[in-house]
């Protein structure tokens, strides 16, 4: 079980820390978007150019990881409160972990491909 | 007597003569073993400014329907037996005056988040077992008998750290008001968490690590959403929500 690998307090420390760092990085992300103008942000060439600017691509990757970790742990906590039971709790815990890994992998693939000019 | 104390007797009569004030007392009746759904029985009850909800229930029980199930003992908010939902809020029936409710209808129901035994009586087994789980006693190797001083001295400041939490009478009102307990059947609950803090904050105790391990689990302290309803309903002025936040400080490392 996940909680036997990590104590709940360690998971919650990660939960709070990811939220704090994500807020800081999302502020940076919004500031970049404001500087460029929102309508221009959605133009294909501008999106690709954003990904090819490596420092910004790193910020986007970090936001992806932080929000995925925070969000899926939050979802796990909510679902564990809705219903209890060993099988259900393990399914929710490992389900959220798997979904988090899939989302980070798929998002990272997109960021890497776009930053390397593969799209 | 009237000739000796004519004035005071008259005053006494004026003070104690029955008032015309009355309310409708609605009592939830439900026996899970027999009934399909709860019903409410209504009784007209006259009251004085000092009449408590428990007095009214007992009057109904004595003179109208003796089958009403209610648990009570001390009648002075010390035993924690008569917790119930009064007009939608968890309160002690012996500590709630009808005159203070400002309502012509007083509805009494069993506490939420507890298994119902009958009518207004609920089972406390789960609360007592979680209370027992957090080791509600001083944990340490030596004892006051073996100590050289024969007692573990505490300064007023040491006592101040936990004394409000020592006021808990285990009435269960905090658990009844807790929104997490309503959905999470295995949540440890504000009563046990407040008591965990009470002993951890006691400088005579050495069981901090053991208790923190007990509450640091999936359905432990992290289930609290800090709604604060536990602190609002406590009849003894205990603030379980604050105790829970202080306990989190130990687990997050900003409190030693």
Task: Give the key terms.
heterodimer; A: 119 residues; mainly alpha; 3 helical TM bundles of succinate and fumarate reductases; 6 helices; B: 256 residues; alpha+beta; Ubiquitin-like (UB roll); Fumarate Reductase Iron-sulfur Protein, Chain B, domain 2; five-stranded mixed β-sheet; 7 strands; 13% strand; elongated; disordered N terminus
Question: Could you explain the architecture of this structure?
Answer:
The complex is a heterodimer of chains A (119) and B (256). Chain A has 119 residues and is mainly alpha-helical. Helices cover 88% and strands 0% of the residues of chain A. Chain A has a single domain, classed as 3 helical TM bundles of succinate and fumarate reductases (Up-down Bundle), CATH 1.20.1300. Chain A has helices at residues 2-5, 8-36, 38-41, 44-52, 54-82, 86-115. In chain A, helix 4 (44-52) packs across helix 6. Helices cover 32% and strands 13% of the residues of chain B. The longest helix of chain B has 13 residues, at 240-252. Chain B is elongated, with a radius of gyration of 22 Å. The model of chain B is unreliable at 1-5 (pLDDT under 50). The interface between A and B is medium-sized, with 13 and 16 residues.
